[in-house]
């Protein structure tokens, strides 16, 4: 019985090597290997297409290579097959670092000073006041909480939005659809850290982004599908939004002629806010397989109903 790695578009080799180092007698295969699909017990994947899973009738567990599992939720996923996600505390910290870096780059106007440096200009501009830098974090799971915590010591006023009310020290929490507008209208910096579910897909469009204060900045570390890209572009072009840092896109990588590559107000990065360590992914996948074999509960199981 074996583990199959289908990590496209991520290269499979680092996952395969990390798994082989710890998997003992359990073979680890990937695309291109000559293997019997009936022997596959665990699948480690980032994205699946319908029609793939029925090829593996002995599958006991489906493991994501990342924290998000939205691209694994295909219609032919058997109801009884557990799906697990990577839970890596370091990953949440890395994402928080990325969000803080992009936000400070914007609030401290670093691109403007870089442009001045290029023409040897010594020109000082007023620093944006803290009242104009109120942070709003969409999604208060492990990642959203790490982001909220990272901002507090830097003097930012932080609020967050979650599905249900919760207590978070130092963070004003808004909950449910009925309080989304209140969160948006006080967020000069909006950070999206939501999981992608049918409820959150295309949440950030003309009306929601338009409800941010004029001159707001958007950071997306959730999923590209949360944002209606043409609406974002319109709001950037008409000056309602001052800028956006985008690490995730509906299509990754975006097509070479996609506007995000060249828009002067957009910082586009290739889904690098965080990467779980290959060793952690491998350890959690192997643990999930052992638990599935023994009929034990999965600590990082995805709630199939909620979608994350
Ligand atoms: C993700 C990841 O889910 O990179 O986006 O882990």
List key phrases describing it.
alpha/beta; 12 strands; Rossmann fold; 27% helix; 308 residues; binds oxalic acid; 2 domains
What is the secondary structure topology, with strand pairs?
Layout: E1 2-6, H1 13-20, E2 28-30, E3 40-45, E4 61-64, E5 83-84, H2 89-107, H3 110-118, E6 135-138, H4 142-151, E7 158-162, E8 172-175, H5 180-185, E9 189-192, H6 206-210, E10 216-220, H7 229-237, E11 241-246, E12 266-268, H8 278-294
Parallel strand pairs: 1-2, 1-3, 3-4, 4-5, 6-7, 6-9, 7-8, 9-10, 10-11, 11-12
Helix pairs in contact: 1-8, 2-4
Task: Explain what you see.
It is a single chain. By secondary structure, the protein is an alpha/beta fold. The protein folds into 2 domains: 2-88 and 276-294, Rossmann fold (3-Layer(aba) Sandwich); 89-268, 3-Layer(aba) Sandwich (Rossmann fold), CATH 3.40.50.720. It has helices at residues 13-20, 89-107, 110-118, 142-151, 180-185, 206-210, 229-237, 278-294; strands at 2-6, 28-30, 40-45, 61-64, 83-84, 135-138, 158-162, 172-175, 189-192, 216-220, 241-246, 266-268. A 7-stranded parallel sheet has the order 8-7-6-9-10-11-12. Helix 1 (13-20) crosses helix 8 (278-294) and helix 2 packs across helix 4. The longest helix is centred in the first third of the chain and has 19 residues, at 89-107. The mean pLDDT is 96. Oxalic acid (OXD) is lined by residues 66-68, 274, 276.
Which architecture of the largest domain per CATH? 3-Layer(aba) Sandwich
Biggest pleated sheet: 7 strands, parallel
> How many domain regions?
2
Stretches with pLDDT under 50, minimum 5 residues:
none
The counted number of beta strands is 12
For this structure, what is the CATH homologous superfamily of the largest domain?
NAD(P)-binding Rossmann-like Domain
Strand order of the largest sheet: 8-7-6-9-10-11-12
Count of helical segments? Answer: 8
Question: Judging from the principal axes of the Cα atoms, what is the shape?
Answer: elongated
Distance between the termini: 28 Å
């Amino acid at each position: 019985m074996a583990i199959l790695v289908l990590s496209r578009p991520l290269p499979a080799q680092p996952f395969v090597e990390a798994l082989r180092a710890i998997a003992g007698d359990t073979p680890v295969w990937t695309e291109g290997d000559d293997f019997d699909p009936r022997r596959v017990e665990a699948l480690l994947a980032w994205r699946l297409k319908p029609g793939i899973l029925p090829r593996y009738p002995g599958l006991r567990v489906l493991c994501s290579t990342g924290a998000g599992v939205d691209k694994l939720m295909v219609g032919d996923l058997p109801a009884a097959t557990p799906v697990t996600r990577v839970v890596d505390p370091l990953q949440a910290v890395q994402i928080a670092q990325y969000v803080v870096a992009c936000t400070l780059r914007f609030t401290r106007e670093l691109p403007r000073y870089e442009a001045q440096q290029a023409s040897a200009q010594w020109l000082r501009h007023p620093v944006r006041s803290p009242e104009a830098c109120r942070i709003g974090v969409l999604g208060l799971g492990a990642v959203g909480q790490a982001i909220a915590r990272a901002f507090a010591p830097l003097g930012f006023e932080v609020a967050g939005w979650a599905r249900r009310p919760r207590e978070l020290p130092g963070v004003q929490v808004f909950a449910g659809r009925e309080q989304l507008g209140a969160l948006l209208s006080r967020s000069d910096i909006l950070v999206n850290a939501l999981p992608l579910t049918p409820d959150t897909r295309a949440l950030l469009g003309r009306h929601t982004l338009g409800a941010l204060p004029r001159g707001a900045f958007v950071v997306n570390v959730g999923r590209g599908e949360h944002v209606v890209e043409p609406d974002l572009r319109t709001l950037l072009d008409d000056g309602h939004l001052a800028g956006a840092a985008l690490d995730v896109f509906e299509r990754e990588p975006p097509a070479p002629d996609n506007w995000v590559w060249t828009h002067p107000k957009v910082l586009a990065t290739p889904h690098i806010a965080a990467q779980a360590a290959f060793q952690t992914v491998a350890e959690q996948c192997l643990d999930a397989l052992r638990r599935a074999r023994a009929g034990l509960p999965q600590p990082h199981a995805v709630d199939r109903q909620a979608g994350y």
